[in-house]
Amino acid sequence: MAALAVVVDARPYVLADRRASSVILPSICFTFAIALAWGFVPALVVQLAAVTVAGVRMRLPVRRTLHLAVQHAAAIGAAAGVAAMVSLRIGPQPDWDDALLTVAAAGVWILARYGLAALVAWAGSHRRRRRARKQSVEVLATAALLLLGPVVLATAQVGLAFVPLVLLALHAVHRMVRSTGESERAARVDSLTGLPNRRALQSVVGEGGRERALLLLDLDRFRAVNDALGHRVGDRLLVEVGRRLADVVPAHDLVVRLGGDEFAVLANRVDGAPEARRIAYHLAEALNRPFAMDGLPVDVTASIGIALQDAPDADCATLLREAEVAMYDAKQRGDQVAVYGPDAAHHSPDRLALLADLRRALREDAPDDGIMLFYQPQIAIATGEVVGVEALLRWQHPERGLVGPEELIRVVEPTPVMRLLTGRVLHNVVAQLAAWREAGTPLRAAVNVSARDLHAGGIADRVEELLHEYGVPADLLQLEITESALMADPHRVLNTITRLDRMGIAISLDDFGTGYSSLQHLRRLPLAEVKIDRSFVLGMSTNRGDAAIVRSVIDLAEAMGLRAVAEGVEDELTWRLLAAAGCHAAQGWFHARPMPPADLAIWLSRYRPVRPGPAPLALPTGLG
């Protein structure tokens, strides 16, 4: 039995994602029997020899081999102590008392070994794990091996020829453990790339640790690769990206595919944000080298968001959310790397609570959730007629009161909640367009959409479904995009808005003049109008520079066959100056403030078109 104990430990059982100190040694089947028959000292000597064989076989460091030996020594000592106290001795014909006492000794063995392991883990991390490690299969296999020992002992007293037959039972236990390990491993591995998946990342983060950083990588323009070369090539590209990331990441870090074109790297031993940034740029540089796909070089870039694990008990969901916020910050700013800053205004706990409240309101979709749309008329300057309205979002928070659109969008846009919000707004606006059309007063409504909506690409499908559901002509809906959305990923945005244009949806470039590098894309975009930012319009009656910018934008729009709409028209002089410059439409408090649909209907019934009078020949002296 001692010989068999040493031999079988040449093939220890290892479960997936377990530490070496948690392996199952098949030798315990025999050492437990030796302890019951001959006492603690012979069992300890045999167990130490078997542990040494297992440690060499698994190439464990000496420290971990000693750790494993101490655990099993304590377990054997506890089991032998119980057996000695009750004078347990397994004979050729054991009775029920012997069986019950053997189960008790085996239970003490399990408690001693795993209790000691848990105590060491707790002392090493100075904290309790938030979730106990799943050890059901491990304990079951251990119990099966221990209780097989007395059976072998009783059989040996009948005839030694039956003892080797126990190897078949050990093989069955080994297959059970191996099958469970393979199942666990498959559940933690991405089927396409072979990298660990989101579940594996959650498991590793759940084990705790300090000085970590989670880097979230989102491939830029990956959809264009799928559209141009097909999904098969796109999948191969994802495999190559994962392989290249794994090649440049140290062995102590974890590379994960989260899904789609998103990857993550859990970097250990990171000393602050500067080192995390250095790692991120190293990853970006590795991806900058072209990938050869069927002889065609494919360039890949990635936007990277970084979240630092400041607390050892930070959960995976929090790190992923923070990294995602940082990643979208990077996209919006046109940077490649951004670090999540908990002290930034839009990452404050107060605003995160606001985001949670909005997410709950959108998902519950209750009639009194406080989400409202106001509409501000757009007036044709030459005729004074109402040519459309812009839908403006408001939220009546149950505790904070009215939340304005600027604050709301700043909080929501970097997060997945933006898609939920855009979906709600589009639904309400299209439903309102149908109601106006049925009442005999068809109006065109403009809706703002974010960079996140355009990058996702599904907005075109959603718009098409809503127009068909409510029977609304496409020319009654207009979508407004910002220059920042265009700059973040112009190719992906161009694909989305081109499809919308082919559906008959007019596209407006909002806040024109406040972005950068937009002129190189302006001639390629299927735009219907540009909206001059209010920051220039508000000052054009008192500042020559602002007036010159407004006139230049109007001339540019005219040359390109686009409508020019001025925002922020708040006085008659500005209205007349815009008319003199040839601006097509105006929007602002001079004509009307944003109103709920019911108030807008009353305003429309009372409104009478007024044409602007002659504009002043020049700005008042002393201004500029």
From TrEMBL:
<keyword id="KW-0472">Membrane</keyword>
<dbReference type="Pfam" id="PF00990">
    <property type="entry name" value="GGDEF"/>
</dbReference>
<dbReference type="InterPro" id="IPR000160">
    <property type="entry name" value="GGDEF_dom"/>
</dbReference>
<feature type="transmembrane region" description="Helical">
    <location>
        <begin position="23"/>
        <end position="56"/>
    </location>
</feature>
<feature type="domain" description="GGDEF">
    <location>
        <begin position="210"/>
        <end position="342"/>
    </location>
</feature>
<feature type="transmembrane region" description="Helical">
    <location>
        <begin position="100"/>
        <end position="123"/>
    </location>
</feature>
<feature type="domain" description="EAL">
    <location>
        <begin position="351"/>
        <end position="608"/>
    </location>
</feature>
<feature type="transmembrane region" description="Helical">
    <location>
        <begin position="144"/>
        <end position="170"/>
    </location>
</feature>
<dbReference type="InterPro" id="IPR029787">
    <property type="entry name" value="Nucleotide_cyclase"/>
</dbReference>
<dbReference type="InterPro" id="IPR052155">
    <property type="entry name" value="Biofilm_reg_signaling"/>
</dbReference>
<protein>
    <submittedName>
        <fullName>GGDEF-domain containing protein</fullName>
    </submittedName>
</protein>
<dbReference type="Pfam" id="PF00563">
    <property type="entry name" value="EAL"/>
</dbReference>
<feature type="transmembrane region" description="Helical">
    <location>
        <begin position="68"/>
        <end position="88"/>
    </location>
</feature>
<dbReference type="InterPro" id="IPR043128">
    <property type="entry name" value="Rev_trsase/Diguanyl_cyclase"/>
</dbReference>
<keyword id="KW-1133">Transmembrane helix</keyword>
<dbReference type="InterPro" id="IPR035919">
    <property type="entry name" value="EAL_sf"/>
</dbReference>
<keyword id="KW-0812">Transmembrane</keyword>
<dbReference type="InterPro" id="IPR001633">
    <property type="entry name" value="EAL_dom"/>
</dbReference>
